[in-house]
Every structure is written in C-alpha cells, then in structure tokens.
Amino acid sequence: MSTKRIAGAEIEKLIQLLAKVPGLGPRSARRAALHLIKKKDQLLTPLASAMADAAEKVQICSVCANVDTQNPCSICTDPRRDSTTIIVVEDVADLWALERAAEMSVRYHILGGTLSPLDGVGPDDLNIKTLVDRIVGGEVKELILAVNATVEGQTTAHYITSQLEDLDVKITRLAHGVPVGGELDYLDEGTLSAALRSRTIF
Amino acid sequence: MSTKRIAGAEIEKLIQLLAKVPGLGPRSARRAALHLIKKKDQLLTPLASAMADAAEKVQICSVCANVDTQNPCSICTDPRRDSTTIIVVEDVADLWALERAAEMSVRYHILGGTLSPLDGVGPDDLNIKTLVDRIVGGEVKELILAVNATVEGQTTAHYITSQLEDLDVKITRLAHGVPVGGELDYLDEGTLSAALRSRTIF
C-alpha cells in the first residue's frame, strides 16, 4: 500500500520539526503536534510568536557568552552583582542551574564546551581567550571553576589554570561530596572518598 | 535572595510555553529552549513558522472531525478510499495510529472522546449525531468500532450500537488478543482469556 497523505503538509512539517526538539521523539512529536493543534489559541499561536520573538531577539553576550535578549547580558550589566567573582561554566544550562541554586550573586563566563582533542576541540574553540582578557582587566579577585566533574571538564580546568598562572586571581573549584538527599549506598567510590577526605566538623 | 532576571523576558516566555507541551516538563522545557536558541536558524525559526502556518491553516473536517489543512479533510476527499467502511475512533491520534498500520484504506469518524457521565461528557458532547447521519446516508456498509478497550470506550461503543439498531449497517470491533511481539508472562488475565477464546487454527 502506498503512503497516503493523512494530514496537511503543514501538520507533517510541524511534526517533523518537533521531533528534533530534545525531549521529544518521532512518537511524542506527533502527540505534541496534536495537542498544540487542539489548543490552537491557548498554546500553538502563543508558542509560535514566542519562538519568533526569541529567534529575533536572542543574542550572545560579548562579555560572558551567555544567551539573552540584550548584549551585554542582564547578568553582566546587573549593578547589584559582585563583579570581583566569576563562575566559569561549560554551558548556559549550567549557569541557569547555578542561578536556581541562588547561592551567589556574581558574574559568569561560559566556555561553550570542554577541551576534547579527540573531537578536535582545542583552546581556540572555547571562550578561554575572552576569559583571560577579563582577568587581565584586574577587577576579578576569584574565579570559580564550575566545570563538570568529567575528564574533559577537569582537563579544561587545568588548562585554564595554566593560562592564568601569572595573574593575581584566586582560582577555586566546586566541592566534591555527597549530594544533598543522596543515599551513600548508591554513590560511587570516588565521590565517597572525596566526601571522606573533605569531611567537616559536625 | 530576590529572584533575579537571568535571561530576557522572551526566553522566559518561551520556556514557560514549552513546558506546556506534552512530553516536556519545566526542566526539559529549559533544555529544549536552550537547544532551540542554539540552533536558531536550523530549528527555532523554521519551527516558529511551521507553528504559525499550522495555526493559520488547520481546520476540523466537517464530515469526520479529523484535523487537516482542508475541509473536508484529505481522507474524506480521497477517491481511492473505500467509502463503504468507516472506522470510529476516539481521537485523531488513534486515526494516525491506524493509518500507520496501513491495513485498510477506508474512511474514519472521530468521536472526540468517550462517554463519561462522571466528567459530564454525554452523547451530545461527542460527534455521535454526525456519525448517525453518515450511516443514514446509506452508503456505509460496515462500521468498525476502534475505541479504546477501556470501560468508557466500551460504554461508548454500546451507546453507538444502540443508536444504529434500526439501520442496515454491520458493526464490528477490533479483535482482542496477544499483542504482536508481546510476552504472555506480562499480559493481564483479561487479554489472555480473550486470546484463548478467540484462538485460531495454526
């Protein structure tokens, strides 16, 4: 039996593009498309304009490489933030995660990935030069390396440290330990060792 | 610490709306938004126009209640389809699922739900009157009730049957049995009983 057209080309196109959104696959894209169509006025139309708006206005911050609708971004231009501390992250998603923790009101720097020679990602592919320039500026007192606790993340952290050797800046990293709410039984040995080594007075 | 603005209002709005798409939650909406922003030209902009297009062109078929960009829909107007058989489904998603099976090239009728007195869904809230009208027209020889095998689905099927008692139309339902690829061990007793009762010669 030949493939038959069961819905308009516009609907097929919508499903096809939705399937490329992370979190949605071909099957859930179909379900999502149907839901959007049924909620045309409440969801489909507003989402279409929200996307068009975002596409039109999104910019990459020339200071820290954050995504925002202004350049420099709202974080870089917020006068209430402490500009003597910069948290270095791999990705904007990490910045968002740290902001949700709402522990520190400081600035950020987004590397845009990690060093990965096998994938051909070298220092020039990351925003490391702009980071060094920010430190050379002299205002920054502390750099918190909040890269992932992976081999690539740690390699990148070491490379950044080596680039800043001669500069007067304190370089720190996130503590390793037991996640809050975590059960010891399910943790790997590396985490448990680190948690034991960095134990604190109760 | 007060909530700080970490991304433009347009980005926040996009995340908020994406979180309402089935399959995405608040956390995955954020991840999806970031991915869309990063793939602005390949994904965000095309998806925005696909949504706007769909919102503008989608219509509900006045014959069968299918969603399409034309009315009557492509299925109702396809001359190659057998118009003497109608498959009755609860939802457009069921029509799409049956079309993927590509077993029969026939017409459909979408009820738009099932009878559910507790939720206040009565016969007038479903597309039952239009179904009866199609049968009264006389062309239809067989009606396949492809409603879900739930209490509500079966109640709806019985109600439809009662409405068509005096009309000359064969009413059938989908077979119950072991799903293809299914393991007996994981099946419920009802399905196994039905599969035994409807056993066929090997």
From TrEMBL, chains A, B:
Keywords: DNA damage, DNA recombination, DNA repair, Metal-binding, Zinc, Zinc-finger
Top-level taxon of the source organism: Bacteria
Positions of the Toprim domain: 84-179
PROSITE patterns named in the record: RECR, TOPRIM
Signal peptide: none
Pfam families in UniProt: RecR_C, RecR_HhH, RecR_ZnF, Toprim_4
Residue spans, zinc finger C4-type: 61-76
SMART domains in UniProt: TOPRIM
PANTHER family cross-referenced by the UniProt entry: RECOMBINATION PROTEIN RECR
Family from the record: Belongs to the RecR family.
Task of the protein: May play a role in DNA repair. It seems to be involved in an RecBC-independent recombinational process of DNA repair. It may act with RecF and RecO.
Protein name: Recombination protein RecR
Provenance organism: Ahrensia kielensis
Gene that this sequence comes from: recR
